[in-house]
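Same chain as my last thread, 309 residues:
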Amino acid sequence: MRVSGLTIVRDIEIMDYPALEAIRSVLPLCDEFVVVVGRSEDATLERIQSLGDPRLRILETEWDPRLRRGGEVLSQQTNLGLQHCTGDWVFYIQADEVLHERYLERVRERMRRFLTDPRVEGLWFRYRHFYGTYWAYQDNRRRWYRRQVRIVRRDPNIVSWGDAMDFRHRDGSKLRSRSAGAEIYHYGWVKRPTRMLEKKRRLDRLWYSDEEIEKRYGSLVSYSYPDRYFLVPFRGTHPAVMQERVRQQDWEFEIPWTPLRLWPVRKIAVWLEPVAKRIARAIPGLREKSASEARSPQFLKQESAPEAS
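reply #2:
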């Protein structure tokens, strides 16, 4: 069994992505690792090269600005990398995702088990979404995806789809997938609030126009992390490759205590959320308010940057 690793990166220092940790977390499973490095404004290429692993195959690219809308450039870059993979399986890891070392042997066993079963085209992972701090994660399946396929069979008919969050057949049909028996730790929402705002400004350019970005973030200086009400304290351990980053957290983050901290209340609230949305859409006043809030930077600190003296 031969396994290829794959990731795409650009501006990992500016965006504060744990990309090196992501790569190192899955390297033990890989015979080769393809890193698609987009032209960056920082030392991304040098950081990837510093890993110094002979299994790395670096592909330097230029992101096409015409593929800006809908995050399409992300799947385009991922598909470029897929074309350079030679393994039976391809383990795709995004720059803010990390696999805990306790799952390595289990994932290896699942790949071996399904290698000769053509009915299995991919393996999906559960997700734990850390938010605002390394010590809290989201527990709302309505707002945060619960699982994604991250290991796919190398097959010309299997491609990265949309904004690279999914894999499909070329005709858009879904893959036949089984559980990898493991969990991905997603750290994309754990940053100092000022750096989180900078990440939002830059990443959202792949979905919105410059005018929309300015309207959303123009006068703001910090991200407020608004989606706190379904947070659950994390009492487990982080992957070994993340320990230094975890120790470096130097900002405070408050998890509000509400009845949603109670498991039964939280689960009922998640179950009822679609009903509440339908009611809001049915009432004109609530519908207008909801639309207005969706267009505004409601989830950001409404603070103006200090004027230069």
